[in-house]
Each structure stands twice: as C-alpha cells, then as structure tokens.
Amino acid sequence: MSETPHFPLPCSPRELSAMVLTHSHLDHSGTMPLLYVSGNADLYATQMTLGLTELLLTDEINLSGELLPFEENELVKMMKKSHPVNMGDEIELNNDFLIKFVDAGHIPGSISALIQAEGKRILVTGDINTVETRLLEGAKFDVTSLDTIVIEATYALQDHPNRKDTERNFVDSIREVLEGDQGKVLIPAFAVARSQEVLCILEKYGVNYPITIDGMVRAASKVILSNPSFIRDYALLSRALEKAIWVRGRKDKQRAVSNTGIVVASAGMLEGGAAIGYLDAFSQDAKNGVFLVSFQIPGTNGRTLIETGSYISNNGERRKAKSKVKFFDFSSHCGKTELWDILKKVDSSAKVYVVHGEPEACTSLAERISGELGIEASAPNNGESYEI
Ligand SMILES: [Zn+2]
C-alpha cells in the first residue's frame, strides 16, 4: 500500500462521550485510535473484542504506521478508556440512553447493539451471522418491536453454500491430498476467527495429521483461548490448538515444509504474512493443495490465484501454481436468505437502514424490503444523517 488513505470522521472527536465497537475486524476498528488524538470517549466492547482489536491495531501501526494519522500513543489512550462488557449486559448513558449488547454470531466477541432511547428501540446489527459454525453459536436476536434497524448487507445478493456440505468437501479435499497423493496442504486464513474455525473443523472430523500454525494466528488464538465464554465448544477449540504445532522458529517452518501435513497460516488473502513464505514450497508440486478459506478481495494475490492459477511469489515473481487450488466458502456473514429471514420478522412500522455492502447490494436490498415487505427502507450514503 503506497497511497495515503482518506479517513473521514463522523463528527469532532471532542463531541463524543461514548462509543460502542461491535467487533475487532479492521473495517470497523481500524480508524478508532484517530478519535483519541483530540477526543477522550469511553469505549464499550466485549473483552474478546478489546483483546483482538489491540492485537490487530498494533499490527496495523507496525505495518503502515507512516500512512496512519495516529500512533501507538492513541491506541494506548483508547485501551485505557475501554470498558469490557458481556453478552446481555445493559449500560446506561446520560440517564435516558440504554445500550444492550446482543450476540452477533459473526466472530468471537462480536455484538449487535440494541439502543433504547426516548421510548424508541433501535438495533444496530454490526456484522452478523445467524448460521451456527464450529466456533460460534449463530445470532438469535429478537427483531420484533423495533422502531429502527440498521442492518449489514455484505451478502445481500448472494447465498452461501450449505455449511455442512462445505465442511465435508473441505475435509475430503484435504484427505485426498494427504492420503491419496501423500502431499501437504497450505491453508492461508484470517488470523482472527477463520483460522480457529478451520482448526475446529479438522479436529471435529478427526483429521489426524500434523497441523502447523504460523503467523498472527498464534497471537489471535491466545486471545481467543483466554475468553472461553464466547466460544461454542471451548473443549473442541482448546483440543485443536493443543494438538497444533505453533511455529516458534526456522526449524518448525522447515519441518512443516518437508513433512506431510497441514499448515494454517496468516494472511488469508496471501498478501504478506507467514502464508506467503510457504506458498512456493506448497504450490510448485502437483501432489499438494493450496486451499483458500477466507474472503478474497478482487485484485489480491489470493483472488488472482483462484481466478488465474498464478500468483506473485515471495520474491516478487509471477508464478503458475502446479498444486490443486481450491476455495471454500466459510463465510462469517449472513447470506441473502438469512438476511431476509431476519427482515421478515421486523414490524412493518419500523424503518430499515441498509449499510456495510457494495452500493448495489445495499440499494437492491432496500428496494426489496420496501417492495415486498412494505417497510420503509433506505441505503444511506456515508455522512448522511437521519432523525429517528
Ligand atoms: Zn466483520
């Protein structure tokens, strides 16, 4: 990344007295320290979210510090102003402003915020998943009697394949490489949530081969393990992480490259991180597999590998992969059908604001809500204000 990014602010940070962070993903938390350059707001989030956010922001500052309008100081200030909350907790701000934290099912620690103020009930979903995964229970929130819902629309136009089918295809593909071809498998995965989800699947299906984890997945796993109450099957996760080989140096890496087994490494889109260091070794042999499990932004190395079979290697050269390359959709967002199942239960007198999606997805979902459910819905642009 060489261009200086643009960081729009919703208001002057000094005017803010409190903020709620729904989850740690950087498209939600990545600019938060900027609000502490001049501001001093209280920050509410789960302990899990706070731990993961600190980890991701520290990494962001280390990697792209010169491009950011804040430094570690602001992150330290932000963490000092943070207040951990639990699922189901309610906090009261300024007497008549209640916020309830509801499980969002998206990644460990993620919440939706139910706001009750001046007799109105407003649900801000944040990123949500109602489908149960190996790592998390699905979100089960109540959307009846709402005056307003602000809902995410990442997959408003697309359904995910059946989760169990995807798990089985994934495990079958891995076994084919390990047992059939005596090869090895590289699984580039997001450090937070997706890596742990993959490890839980492998453990659940009894895949008994050495599994090595490398990159930020190690630090993220430590944070996740230290917050057991957010995990659906903590025993499964801790068993999977106990069995895994945590790379601590060059020798562990060499062993992972030369022996039959599985490597789960960050980053999920093969843009830097530990995963790219394994890519040549795994992709240049037809016996092996490179299995992508995270969302791939167009133009990234991972997306190019899926679409063209070639990639930019660690030394900057474009190479053609000889190994099997596959993508598995283990999304942590509601698909089109799950979003619609939520919206069908919303009262017809409510208002719906559709956010967090491609403009086409947000607009199309808002139009469908108005057309088929007769509920007032819009897809606001950045910076627009609405009175509720
Ligand atoms: Zn997210």
Describe it.
With 388 residues, the protein is of the alpha/beta class. It has two domains: 13-158 and 333-378, Metallo-beta-lactamase, Chain A (4-Layer Sandwich); 163-327, Rossmann fold. Helices cover 34% and strands 20% of the residues. The protein contains twelve helices and 18 strands. The chain has helices at 26-29, 47-64, 72-80, 163-180, 194-204, 217-225, 234-243, 250-258, 273-283, 301-308, 336-343, 359-373, and strands spanning 18-20, 42-46, 82-85, 90-93, 97-103, 111-117, 120-124, 148-152, 185-188, 211-214, 245-246, 262-265, 289-292, 310-312, 318-320, 324-327, 351-355, 376-378. The strands form four sheets. A seven-stranded mixed sheet has the order 4-5-6-7-8-17-18, covered by helices on one side. It has a six-stranded parallel sheet with strand order 11-10-12-9-13-16, sandwiched between helices. Strands 1-2-3 form a three-stranded parallel sheet. Strand 1, helix 1 and strand 2 form a beta-alpha-beta unit. Helix 2 packs antiparallel against helix 6 and helix 5 packs across helix 7. The mean pLDDT is 96. The site of zinc ion has 4 residues, from loops.
